[in-house]
Write a structure and sequence with these properties.
By secondary structure, this protein is an all-alpha fold. The chain has one domain (5-108, 120-181). 68% of the residues lie in helices and 0% in strands. The protein contains six helices and no strands. The longest helix is centred in the N-terminal third of the chain and has 21 residues, at 5-25.
Length: 182
């Protein structure tokens, strides 16, 4: 990704921490939590890898099509899972956004930087930005009243809905940042 190096490293740290927490959530006793956490862990780690500053590590040309294939498979899985749970439609949009960004990065000639001329923001980038900005606002609003605890019970790290919402919020913010840097 292109952009300020310090912001990129913050995004890498945020996405990697989110992916790591999602791995913890995969130990939940609730089947649907485990399923969602697996897709979210893939998304968090994938975003972390994609956000590494290009000046530090430039992936080989073959990495972007592989990246697109992995997230294309994740999109197909999310589409299949959306039959039972509508939340997976958000996973579908996220995976498709990752495919889009991988294809966009593959199209950039080696060593070239984006020319910020008068071309403007591509339509698909704009649509994805609007979607994820709206998602961030909605997720943030849902996070505020989430500080409800089960009567006298201490939920494990994998079963804390407010932490899961915070992870989804941070990945949404990360996606907005990555789309802006695209």
């Amino acid at each position: 990704m292109h952009g300020p190096v310090s912001a990129a490293w913050l995004l890498v740290a945020l996405c990697a921490a989110t992916g790591a927490y999602c791995l913890l959530r995969m130990r939940s006793g609730v089947k649907e939590q485990r399923r969602a956490a697996g897709g979210e862990a893939l998304m968090g780690f994938g975003m972390a890898v994609m956000a590494v500053p290009a000046a530090v590590f430039a992936p080989p040309r073959w990495a972007w099509p592989v990246y697109a294939a992995v997230f294309g498979a994740a999109a197909l899985h999310a589409l299949w899972a959306a039959r039972a749970t509508p939340h997976h439609l958000h996973h579908l949009v996220g995976a498709c956004a990752m495919v889009y960004m991988a294809v966009a990065m593959a199209a950039v000639p080696p060593g070239a930087h984006h020319a910020h001329g008068g071309a403007g923001v591509p339509l698909l980038t704009g649509v994805l930005l609007v979607y994820f900005a709206g998602y961030v606002l909605l997720a943030g609003a849902r996070l505020v009243p989430a500080a409800v605890t089960v009567a006298g019970a201490s939920a494990g790290w994998g079963d804390r809905p407010e932490l899961a919402r915070a992870c989804r919020l941070s990945m949404g913010i990360g996606m907005v940042a990555m789309l802006l840097a695209l």
